[in-house]
Design brief:
- By secondary structure, the protein is of the alpha/beta class.
- It contains 7 helices and 13 strands.
- It has a 5-stranded parallel sheet with strand order 3-2-4-1-5, sandwiched between helices.
- Strand 2, helix 2 and strand 3 form a beta-alpha-beta unit.
- Helix 3 (about 60-75) packs across helix 4 (about 90-100) and helix 6 packs parallel to helix 7.
- The protein is globular, with a radius of gyration of 20 Å.
Length: about 260
């Protein structure tokens, strides 16, 4: 999707943190770009040449970052907007689409490409087995862009529907109570034995993966680098002597018919 004479914005994800989990296609986009926009810690994951300009901003400035990147591309620059994980999952691709949708008509002529990446829930799931082996969903616990009442309702309905739930943005200093409240909503719908996976920094040197039953799930086990996966009633935990337990959701549905 490119406009004649305009530059291009390519949105990439660096993956969950392990450099090997950034895709070759994303690496190609980095090699050809001259200007890079993103949250500082994500830009730090890249090794840039002297001729490549790094423009860092706060993680809460996504829409302003998107507008600045589009303006740069409009002036003919090859721009790369950098997210962690996959750029289309709770990341910068949506902010750029929103900016193009609501911005000046000229912005619609700027070349725009999203490069798929590896999102956190996939890295966490791979570390523990296959908890996403059957139907699942992803939900952000941040109430910065949607009311908490909407989040509570979605949690309740998702648990009732029997879906595995991957929680992004579970907790922060500004939002210290939401994960505990989410667990309370889920405990009203799910058995206390349902496994909960706390996957922190999957693939990085400070990785920490822990599995606990829902009845014992403690919000203190999470931070903003954590993706929390709550199993469904079908999800199983398999003990393996001398090895890490496996957690998986069977490929077949064995629950009651609806």
């Amino acid at each position: 999707m490119s406009g004649e004479g305009a530059g291009r914005v390519t949105v990439i994800g660096t993956g969950p943190g392990d450099p090997r989990q950034m895709t070759p296609e994303a690496g190609e986009a980095v090699a050809r770009a001259t200007r890079f926009y993103g949250y500082g810690p994500y830009l730090d994951r890249l090794t840039l040449r002297p001729d490549q300009l790094r423009i860092a901003s706060d993680n809460r400035e996504e829409l302003d970052r998107a507008k600045a990147a589009i303006e740069d591309a409009l002036h003919g620059h090859e721009v790369c907007v950098v997210s962690g994980g996959d750029p289309g999952v709770f990341a910068m691709a949506a902010a750029l689409c929103e900016a193009i949708d609501h911005g000046p008509e000229a912005w619609k002529g700027v070349g725009f490409e999203v490069v798929p990446g590896v999102t956190a829930m996939l890295a966490v799931a791979a570390r523990i087995g296959a908890p996403l082996g059957h139907d699942f969903c992803a939900l952000s616990l941040s109430d910065n862009l949607k009311p908490w009442a909407v989040i509570e309702r979605r949690l309740r309905l998702l648990a009732e529907a029997g879906l595995v739930i991957a929680l992004y943005n579970p907790i922060s200093r500004a939002r210290p109570w939401q994960l505990g409240a989410a667990f309370e909503v889920l405990r009203a719908e799910l058995a206390p034995s349902v496994p909960v996976i706390f996957g922190r920094a999957a693939g990085r040197p400070d990785e920490a993966i822990r599995v606990v039953p829902l009845g014992e799930a403690d919000p203190a086990l999470a931070d903003m680098a954590t993706c929390v996966i709550i199993g469904s009633p079908e999800t199983r935990r398999v003990a393996r002597p001398g090895q890490t337990d496996l957690v998986y959701t069977p490929r077949f549905y064995a629950g009651p018919s609806t």
